[in-house]
Design a protein that fits this description.
By secondary structure, this protein is α/β, with parallel strands linked by helices. It has 5 helices and 4 strands. The chain has a 4-stranded parallel sheet, sandwiched between helices. The chain is globular, with a radius of gyration of 13 Å. The N and C termini lie far apart (27 Å).
Length: 123
C-alpha cells in the first residue's frame, strides 16, 4: 500500500476478555487487515474494546474512533459486523451519522457483509 491509500481504523469489539482475546478477536483482526489490503486502505490504528456494552459511546475504544474521525485522521472504519458497533440497531444509527458528518464511512470485513456492501459503507 502507498502513502496515498485511504486511512482507516480497524475497530475490534469481539472478545469478552482483553486478557485472552480468543478466536473471535483473531478473526476480526485478520479479516480487517485482509479487507484493508483488498480495498487499498491503510490501517493507521487498531482499536479494541471488550464486547458486552451495547452503547458505543460508553466504550473508550469507540470514543477514540469517533475522535479520529472528527480530527480527519481516518476516512474509513473497518469492523467485522454490525454487532461490533452495537447489538442494538437503534444505537448504531447515530454513530453512522456521526462518522458521516466527519467524512468517514463504516465498512464490515466479514465476507458475507463486505460482499453485499459492493464498495459502499454501511448505512
Amino acid at each position: 500500500m502507498t502513502r496515498t491509500s485511504t486511512p482507516a481504523v480497524l475497530y475490534i469489539c469481539a472478545s469478552r476478555s482483553q486478557d485472552v482475546p480468543g478466536v473471535a478477536h483473531e478473526r476480526a483482526v485478520q479479516e480487517g487487515r485482509d479487507f484493508a489490503v483488498k480495498n487499498s486502505l491503510r490501517i493507521v490504528a487498531e482499536i479494541v474494546d471488550r464486547y458486552g456494552e451495547p452503547v458505543p459511546q460508553r466504550r473508550a475504544g469507540w470514543l477514540r474512533v469517533r475522535e479520529m474521525a472528527e480530527r480527519g485522521e481516518v476516512e474509513v472504519v473497518i469492523t467485522r459486523w454490525p454487532n461490533a458497533l452495537s447489538p442494538v440497531s437503534e444505537f448504531r444509527h447515530p454513530e453512522l451519522d456521526h462518522l458521516g458528518r466527519h467524512g468517514a464511512q463504516l465498512f464490515f470485513s466479514w465476507a458475507p457483509l463486505s460482499a453485499m456492501a459492493d464498495g459502499r459503507g454501511a448505512r
